[in-house]
Every structure is written in structure tokens, then in C-alpha cells.
Specification:
With about 300 residues, the chain is α+β, with helices and mostly antiparallel strands. It has 11 helices and 10 strands. A 5-stranded antiparallel sheet has the order 1-10-9-6-7. A 5-stranded antiparallel sheet has the order 2-3-4-5-8, covered by helices on one side.
């Protein structure tokens, strides 16, 4: 019914500074569902275990979806009855699991002397333990006849439909509010989630990514066109994946130099049957891109 893939690459700036990759990505295909997940650990000083936090967030999201879809028919019925309530319930459960996982990690791996030496003692004791693991989270789920998802912090969700049209479901700026740390570690995390629900549209694929990918493009047009190209290559995914992974590395080195994660879920039958339509859309996108470039040059 569904398939998927995911990949994370270390940012060029992290390589230069000897910092670990703070991103995590995952996907899972189960009975009646497919889920894609990406998480981006915060880079600031007090989130010194954010690489662990992002991994815990990805694991918590996948485990949550698996748990709630244990009975797909019951989930479908509940979702159709009140999808807003059920999505909020999923968000709460993800937060619960993430806190459980990060605090278990802290118990097994107490803060080291080297980690404490990053701070003055008075500053360190004021940092909440959950902040050590601060991270964003983006989750997309394809079910039987509908798609939904939720996110906290920055990152992008792009849907590609059978007609080749793309949509950035949650606006990038809406998911990254100014002057607020939208994070899994925030005490008010549940109030910081954005969510979406799409029905009655045949979805080719859903791609979610951390902000390192979005910020490597010059415009929203280019960003969305990139996803149409991905959709056009999905019928040959095994041959395409190596070049996609190389491209993500290049985008990190020549873009913002940030970590990049991409996770995708798709309908294998639909990507084949709609492939000619998608290829035509790719050509049309190239034509429009050339027109936009010409207008800029003529200004």
C-alpha cells in the first residue's frame, strides 16, 4: 500500500567544527499506515545532547503511530469522528514518550564533567534537564484515504498530488514563530504544535525535511519544484536514492551548511500510473523557472 525512505546528512559547518549531526530521520510502513519523521536538534549551547534528543523524538513518533494503529479500523473510525482530538492525543503521547526516553538516557548517562565545563555553575543549574535534549519534530502519516501530520518547530511538509501539483501544507514561517523556542523540551510544548489533515485527494508522496533543506533554496518555487522532481523519480527509487543522497550533501555544502534530513512516504502504484503527468509538470516547472529568471535579468 505504501513505501518510503529517509536519509540524514551532516552539515558542512558541523564537519568543520567537529560537531556531531544533530538531525534524525525515520519512516515506517505498517498495516493501514505509513509514517515519515524528521527531527532537528537545537544547536545552542544549553541543548548539548540535542543529537540524542532528535533521535528520541523520531523513535517516539514512530512508536506512537504504531501503537495507535494497532487496530487500523478502530483508528480510522475514531479519526473520522474527531480528527482534531485524536491528533492532539497523538501529540501528547509523543511528548510523553520523548520525555520518558530522554530522562532514561540521562539516568543511564549522567552529565559528564566535560559537559558541565561548558557553563558557569550558576548558569548550569538553571537549565532544565529536558533542555539538554531540545529538538524540533515533524511527522506525516498516510492512512487509508487520508493524510495527516503535526510538527513543532521549523521544518517542512510538502505533498505532491497525482496531478503533479505540490503544496507546502504548513507554512514554514507559521511553524517557526518568532521569539519563541518551539521545542519538544518546552514546558508548553503541546501548545506549540501545528497540524494538518488532507482528505479526498490522491497523494503521490509526502516529503518532510528539516530546515537545512528549505533554506538551501533561493525561493519557494525552487523548493517545491525540487519535490516534483523527487516524485518523478520514485518509480526508479533504488537507482535514484544514491544521487538524491549525494544531492543532499551538496545542498548542505553549498547552502546554509546545516544538517539536512529528508523522509518520504509514497504510493508505489500511483507514482507509476501518474508518472507521465508528473514528468509533464516537471517540464512546465522548468519553463516557468526560466521565465522568472528572464524577468529578473530584464529588470
Amino acid at each position: 500500500m505504501f513505501n518510503g525512505f529517509c536519509h540524514s546528512v551532516m552539515g558542512a559547518s558541523h564537519e568543520k567544527r567537529g560537531i556531531v549531526c544533530q538531525d534524525a530521520s525515520a519512516f515506517k510502513v505498517g498495516e493501514g499506515f505509513a509514517v515519515a519523521v524528521v527531527a532537528d536538534g537545537h544547536g545552542s549551547k544549553k541543548h548539548f545532547r540535542s543529537n540524542i534528543g532528535s533521535k528520541c523524538a523520531a523513535e517516539a513518533a514512530v512508536e506512537t503511530i504504531e501503537t495507535f494503529f494497532a487496530d487500523p479500523d478502530a483508528f480510522d473510525a475514531s479519526f473520522k469522528e474527531d480528527h482534531k482530538w485524536l491528533i492532539r492525543k497523538l501529540e501528547k503521547y509523543v511528548i510523553y514518550l520523548w520525555n520518558e526516553k530522554t530522562m532514561a538516557h540521562l539516568k543511564e548517562n549522567p552529565v559528564t564533567i566535560d559537559e558541565k565545563h561548558l557553563f558557569e555553575h550558576k548558569d548550569f543549574i538553571e537549565i532544565p534537564e529536558s533542555s539538554y535534549y531540545g529538538t524540533t519534530l515533524v511527522v506525516a502519516v498516510a492512512a487509508r484515504g487520508y493524510t495527516f501530520g503535526f510538527q513543532i518547530g521549523d521544518g517542512s511538509l510538502v505533498a505532491v498530488f497525482e496531478d503533479g501539483e505540490t503544496s507546502q501544507i504548513i507554512d514554514y514561517e507559521e511553524s517557526n514563530p518568532a521569539n519563541i523556542t518551539a521545542s519538544m523540551c518546552n514546558a508548553m510544548a503541546i501548545a506549540m504544535f501545528d497540524s494538518f489533515y488532507v482528505k479526498d485527494k490522491r497523494l503521490l508522496c509526502f516529503c518532510i525535511s528539516t530546515d537545512g533543506l528549505y533554506t538551501s533554496f533561493g525561493s519557494d518555487y525552487d523548493f517545491l519544484d525540487y519535490h516534483t522532481i523527487i516524485a518523478g523519480q520514485l518509480p526508479n527509487i533504488e537507482a535514484f536514492l544514491p544521487s538524491l543522497k549525494n544531492n543532499l550533501v551538496k545542498r548542505s555544502h553549498y547552502g546554509t551548511e546545516d544538517d539536512i534530513s529528508l523522509s518520504c512516504i509514497y504510493d508505489p502504484e500511483l507514482v507509476v500510473s501518474a508518472n507521465e503527468t508528473v514528468k509533464a509538470k516537471i517540464l512546465d516547472n522548468k519553463r516557468k523557472a526560466a521565465e522568472r529568471k528572464a524577468k529578473l535579468l530584464n529588470k
